[in-house]
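Dear U.,

For the methods section draft, I wanted the exact inputs and outputs in one place so we can describe them consistently. I've listed the two proteins in the order they'll appear in the manuscript figures. Please don't edit the token lines directly; just add comments below if something needs changing.

First protein:
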Amino acid sequence: MPKISSRTANLGTENAFVVLKEVNDLVARGREIISFCIGQPDFNTPPNICEAAVKAIRDGRHGYTPSAGIPELREAVADYVSRTRGVEVNPDWVVIANGAKPFIGFTILSVTDYGKGHEVLYPNPGFPIYSTQALAHGVVPVPLHLLEGRGFSFDVDRIESLITPHTRLLILNSPHNPTGGILTRETLERIAEIVLRHDLWVYSDEVYSRMVHDGGFESIAAVSGMLDRTVICDGASKTYAMTGWRLGYAVNRELAPYFSTWMTNTTSCPNHVAQWAMVEALKGPQEETRKMMAVFRQRRDLMVKGLNEVEGVTCLLPGGAFYAWPNVTKLCSMVGVSDSEELRKRLLYDAGVAVLADIHFGARVPGEGQHIRLSYATSDENILSGIERLKDFVRTHRK
């Protein structure tokens, strides 16, 4: 047989979907599993958005669109980003894609060259696709450690020490997956000083921008001098419960034409019908979204309170998104497991609770102990039942 390329054979993945398959296999065999492993809203897409899609179908909006997206959606995004980030954005700077994820690769492809040793700084722990895309495109991924003692934010001074003549791009994610950490305005301003001093691009992953539980959202693009060098990336999935509709966008004056060309070279254009649904999402009533965000905040409080009642577990209060990132170092020792991944497996098969381990989000940060991720994008009943199963697991398996 012909050989598979090494870049494909070694391509990493998003382990939430790997664990989800384990969960589904157990459910198919009759096991009752409480799952905290997948990060998607458990709400239906609001009815007005669905109706806009139905209308688009009935109106015959079935053909190709411009690679960058329909003008109506690009205009809606420009207006939305301008209002929510406090910057002035032109529709020509906006490109729509089938989900926000493609823009990770498009940005890396647009600002680095294959095999020249160019480097990308990315948060660790972090969304695993940051590093897998860097490696696949012949770039060196350099982890920036997030520290529990700093509320899962950066040691900003450490950023500058990792920058070399090969550094091209800094990836930021706030609110953050998997920790729920938030980058404050002060931190963003300090990061901006470094970025400007070293003439770097920034990819700002803002898909959880509407999920800041206390206070308002801050984008580094709003810091003086940063708009033109920042790729603002957001989408419909989290804010409007539209994960399966697959629509995201990126905003940058210089890179937008290149992103459009990458769209032409890959998927031709975004889904036509879904784009009209997203126009309605951005321009229509926002009450359903506000209700969802309020529910996530209540669930956060319920989840964190419960986790801190489990012996051997400590959990900081996440500032955003819908993830808890508890420290389970003591719990691992108490129940006689070697690390968080062995704990994850034991919780799934012995307690019927599905979580993700810290190694699913990058190499463990030295000296930071063991962590797991739980998504609280699920019902209060599941959260309470899952916490009780964790407590029972500790009582039963304590060494």
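Second protein (the one for the lower panel):
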Amino acid sequence: MSYLYNYKLTTNAEFLRVDLLDEIRQFSGKFSDIDIEVCLTYDENMHTDVTVGDILSHYTAALPDGDEIEIKRQVKRFVKHSLYMTLSEISGIKLPWGSLTGIRPTKLAYAYIAKGGQVDNVSGYMQSTFAVSSHRANLLQRIIKAQRSALSQMPDSAVNLYVHIPFCDGRCNYCSFPSVDISKKGSNDLLSRYVDALISEIAEMKKFIAVRNESIFSVYVGGGTPSVLGENDLERLLNAIAADNCEFTFEAGRADSFSCEKTAILKAGGVTRICVNPQTLNDDTLARIGRRHTASDFYKAYFTAKEAGFDINTDIIAGLEGETPSDFAHTADSIAELQPENVTVHTLSRKRASLLADTELSCPDIERMMDYAFMRFSDYEPYYLYRQKNMVGNLENVGFCKKGKECVNNITVMEEMVPVYACGAGSISKRVGKCISRFASPKDVGLYIDELKERTDKKLMFLSGERVE
């Protein structure tokens, strides 16, 4: 790891500076000491002149059309792509996702289909328009097909209910989620008070859903680490949610916070799907990244959940500090032997609020690791994908599933297909449509508890489509 690079960028398109810097950063410091200039001009077409050192490249495209938002979107894509093509040609580096830096490549595929494009032509469109590699473009096409099949019976009245538990027993160095460390003095009392407030908010949210004749399509209890809840608080929470006939996911997360007693409570509470996430099955790495459990703890939690009859997701991460391709292969092989219903393979990302925020991540073998994952889980179907800024190797996070075991919450949330009604401190509710609107609850747990009624009322106004001051 090294500290973040500084880049020498000048441009007359200042509104695109952040996007252009994101494009340059994808080349991992290759252009950190070189002057780069990007100039955008218009006549009967639009033009981009990209100068890197003493090399000048020129690009032309038709003037964009549509409303103001669409025009800005087309201009941004053109200028970013022009910069990418120049940097790629000079460096000889072809990035797997080409000029794309956004988190949802699938959005572009769905937009293409909405304008009359064919699903079977998605791969070619992504390759020709954004210089996406054939492997990633084909992957995207497969994912679109899997998603359309999984959601074929989704009702028009569908909403997702998200419940947030912002508490953890320690902090992993790659994590950016705000959370309270329950190992600190006084945190257990705060946790119980938080559950009281959360149950109250869930009750109001369920009334709201009933009045609007909406149906809960999926429930997701995330965090943080929801399984740090004590047995009594866990049972009270599940009784408040009381979801029937829908996919219900609970993040057991860290294996050290899971038990047989909690498993029985989850089963009785209607949970259908559990995430038991090792991230890696190498004990040295687990200690280095701040997870307070061992590989043995993971196996104990996994088999406890499996014996109870839950569908199971496991998360693993490629590119963790100090790991070699053989370390990652050991984790992938071990998970593949277990045959969980879902496997999510993440690429390490430098998240703004994580302990890695001030470092430039590097893992020369990251693409080999991800290629190994695709090979090892070839008997699974890739069904959702997303990316994050500052990912190692400009790669992606991919969810794999056994046939018919797609997590509909992952699909609909990532593709922003249905509203998200979110409860809890740090949770974000979402309205969907031509524009995506969000309502964030306070991250501070104490503030969430103290201002619960006022903020819940505002949230319900927001979800009703009313303007909230």
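Candidate sentences for the figure legend, describing the second protein: The chain has three domains: 1-93, 94-150, 155-423. The radius of gyration is 23 Å.

Thanks,
Y.
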